[in-house]
Design goal:
alpha/beta
Length: about 500
Amino acid sequence: MNKIFEINNLISRIRLEKKKNKKIVHCHGVFDLIHVGHIKHFKEAKKNGNFLVVSITSDKFVNKGSGRPIFNQNLRAEFLSSISLIDAVVINNNLTSEKIISQIKPDIYFKGPDYKNNEADRSKNIYKEIAAIKKVKGKIVYSDDITFSSSNLINTHSNYFSEEQKKYIKNISKKYSFNLIYNKLKKLEKLKVLLIGETIIDQYIFGDVLGKSGKEPHLVLNENKNESYLGGAAAIANHLASFCKTVKFLTLAGKEKENLNFIKKLLRKNISIKFFNKKNSSTIIKKRYIDEVTKNKLLGVYHINDDILKDNSEKVLINFIKKNIPYFDLILVSDYGHGFISKKTAAAINSSKIFFSLNAQINASNRGFHSLIKYKNIDSLIINENELRHEMRDKSGNLEKLGLQLINHLKINKLIITRGDKGAMLIEKKGKTIYAPAFANKVVDKVGAGDTMLAVTSLCMKIKMPNDLALFLGSLAGASAVESIGNSKFIDKEQLVRQIQFSIK
């Protein structure tokens, strides 16, 4: 008998069980590594009723560190369904469990003993769960048995973290408690952010590689599916909006209704957007053709007009910046080199007196023409190693020395250099350098990693979070970004809190 249910079928089954006067017990979790602690937990849960339902967090919402879950949702569901104590298994396709509680309507919601002290739940989701179970007239029951954490077992007894990562996390844990980090992240809510940058629609065309054409020397792809995501500065806006209540977004886009509606639909609700456009220019679209099996990129096709924003549109943008700067706590610029931010606009940004954070990217469409030299007085700049070497026209020089040269040239307070699997480094204006290892154990797509790190580190530095802590949080966020295609997942404060929770001892 198949015990794995879609939610609608499960609801129908539960109704039948309740008609038989069965008492429904509900357990929820990731269950990434089934162990004896889980079996004991299910035994105790089943004693409280007759029909045991276990819901599991879907893969896309598992944020317990890079590379998690170890086992995908289907394998986790299959394993749980083989346990005789369990009567039904369902995959929860929501970030938290409140919705599925409202759907299942259990008589008993069963939790581990570590949740008895509600304040000990670092994610604070327990309060939402308590409210949800009360709403369906059920009650929450806590286990009396000892608890075993899958994540602690994985982190402690497997090679999930490298020795370098373990040492780094240990040092961070000694300096900063989870509660301290959590309280600092709470402070970000009050920040008012002005974000400026080009919106990019990232399209991914997945297919099966058929091989070389028999007639001409080109690769043939059989298209299977097409997915579109918000990229560029629009992705950064969504990252920021999870941490801050107020985000004003000034962006370049075309006038085509379909694309504008797509952008508005995918932006978080607390983002206020103001569109700018260039004459005869559509929204920037970057298409990537992907081998569906390997996830390797085969070809990129870009639709871009790199002409500089001119005349009245440029004046409107500059006037808006000058007039509204006093209302914001920081200005964040993501310049992709596609003509939105002119030298005059950059000058207006440079003269602002508020915290200024910058990411000016070099990519295939602007290499050799896009430069940082139009910017000055930068509080925080994030750049990858290749971008720095390109800017300084130095292919092999000492990276730290090159960073200090750039700091002095552009009057930068703090420079973050990302280095892929070599991690990241932060150089202060006075020359002090700190390092962080890479936390991505599974790299799917590097697109969006720098954007994610920019969003998190900028906010952290604005509230004067210690440099090593800001770099740690930015590195965690960046690791999460590279584990999915494009910007299919936006960093979420609650998800980042969970990552921290399972990293910090």
